[in-house]
Amino acid sequence: MSSTPQWDPAVLARLGQLHLRARGLVSGLTHGHHKSLRVSRNVEFADYKEYTPGDDLRDLDWKVYSRNDRMVVRRQQSEDELSVVFILDASADMSTGETGQHPALSGTKLGTAITMIATMAYYLQHRGEPIGLAVLGGEGVLQPWIPPRRGANHLAQIFASLASVKPGGAEVLAEGFSQIGTRVPRRAAVVVVSDLMEEPESWGPPLSAMLRRQADLRIAHVYDRKEWEMDFRSSARFFSPEGGSPMPIDPDTVREAFSEIVQEYLAEVRQWLGRSRALHVLAASDEPLEVPIGRLLSGVLSGGS
User: Fold this and answer.
1) Which of 107, 120, 204, 253 has its CB 3.0 to 4.6 Å from that of 272, i.e. a possible disulfide?
2) CA 129 distance to own-chain centroid
């Protein structure tokens, strides 16, 4: 991690662009049907926090005080409250072929993923929902894990991390899902934004394990249409940013066979996501994002599915 990457002029400019794109996309989403996920008559104990001036004295736990001479406040959680944790795949395969660079916010897989998360975070934070962020892989990551919280300062922290990240690293999903799965609050909505370009049998089990915490899993499957359709005009040497030897390929020769490979891969992905009871939403890097974002937020916006 560099000393103060958030003050890099390029990152600051990117941060401003990200705010503009998020606000613009939010304005295109349907308003008026969202209800607060925090309003409920039924509450349950969540945890303790140290008493600070301004806390409601009615929430003090006097039993703890009498035993340990500690002033702590009982924090309650609404049964309808739903934290939202975003998981960003920032591995090298999310790049356009050049790692260590900030990809454009539109027309690239990582740029699309960052923009989608920023938009959803902006939307939910302004409605008082607790949001968190986990970044898997990547370079220049300010904070790989930001727990779900509320507030403008918290949103700014998430935006700074999104604006700073560059693609990097290989095979991050399986280990990342395992680590994040133990940190996700119970009954949270978990929104994964990834191209899922790792073997489903490696990341499928740790993703499914999140169901034990009653997670509501939603997957934004970001893809590059040219990659899936082999939409290239001439022969070239293709390589994975995550490693391996370049391969000379004639797109016209392999296009039909490659289409079948993509369909088989999608069927395997959907099979694993079905086991996880996850919502699967495709998001092309060259198409408007309002529709996939709206689908990802649909259950959250109505107070949980």
Assistant:
1) 204
2) 15
How would DSSP label each residue in 81-148? Answer: ---EEEEEE--GGGSSS-TTS---SSSSHHHHHHHHHHHHHHHHHTTT--EEEEEES-BS-S-SEEEE
Query: Under a CB-based contact definition with an 8 Å cutoff, are residues 122 and 22 in contact?
Result: yes
Task: For residue 154, give Cα distances in angstroms to 5, 287, 303.
Answer: 18, 29, 22
| Same domain, yes or no: 55 and 129 | no
8 A C-beta contact, residue 132 and residue 148: yes
Whether residue 124 sits in one domain with residue 196: yes
pTM to 2 decimal places? 0.77
Half-sphere exposure of 117 (CA within 13 A, CB side): 35
Structural domain count, the chain:
2
First-to-last alpha carbon distance for the chain, in angstroms, is: 39
Domain coverage including residue 287? 5-34+82-301
Residue owning tokens 């997670």: 215
Q: Are residues 66 and 118 in the same domain?
A: no
Q: Are residues 113 and 160 in the same domain?
A: yes
CA distance 116 to 104: 13
Q: Are residues 194 and 67 in the same domain?
A: no
Q: Are residues 176 and 251 in the same domain?
A: yes
pLDDT digits (tens, 9 = 90+) for 8-20: 788 889 999 999 9
